Amino acid sequence: MPADDEWIDDDAGPMVRPYAVTRGRTRPGRADFDLIAIIATHPRGTPTPQTSGPEHQRILALCETPLSVAEICSEMDLGLGVVRILLDDLDSADLIAVRRPAPVTQLPSERVLKEVIDGLEAL
């Protein structure tokens, strides 16, 4: 059995592997979170055993003021994959609201742009 001092590095803090935080999961279950998606805490859901960990609680506290997924990663000092899994847990329990970015509209084709220019020149 390792001594307690082997698990703590004064500079790095407690060492917890990402797979321990996500309980071995490597992908979110049902949702994927874009880096610029905005996350906000809301009290509609009820906490579950899967959402009662310290990382989940920290995300809920951080997102009382809406933050992007990128900002959450930065604040939590966790990788994007880990944060996406934690957000998926919170989303499944209806503890967060997610505002996903609007899809990028497709640009008009070159032909359409040329017709517009030709029409403007004809005026």
**Beta-strand proportion:** 5-15%
Order of helices and strands: EEHEHEHHEH
Distance between the termini: 85 Å
Helix content: 25-40%
The largest beta-sheet arranges its strands as 4-3-5
Number of domains: 1
Main structural class: alpha+beta
Return residue spans where pLDDT drops below 50 for at least 5 consecutive residues. none
Approximate shape: elongated
Radius of gyration: 22 Å
Q: How many runs of DSSP E, i.e. beta strands?
A: 5
> What is the chains' assembly state?
single chain
| Arithmetic mean of pLDDT | 77
- Note the main sheet: 3 strands, antiparallel
Helix count equals 5
Report on this structure:
It is a single chain. With 123 residues, the chain is an alpha+beta fold. The chain has one domain (4-122). The protein is 38% helix and 11% strand. The strands form 2 sheets. The protein has a 3-stranded antiparallel sheet with strand order 4-3-5. Strands 1-2 form a two-stranded antiparallel sheet. A hairpin with a 3-residue loop joins strand 1 (8-9) and strand 2 (13-14). The radius of gyration is 22 Å and the shape is elongated.
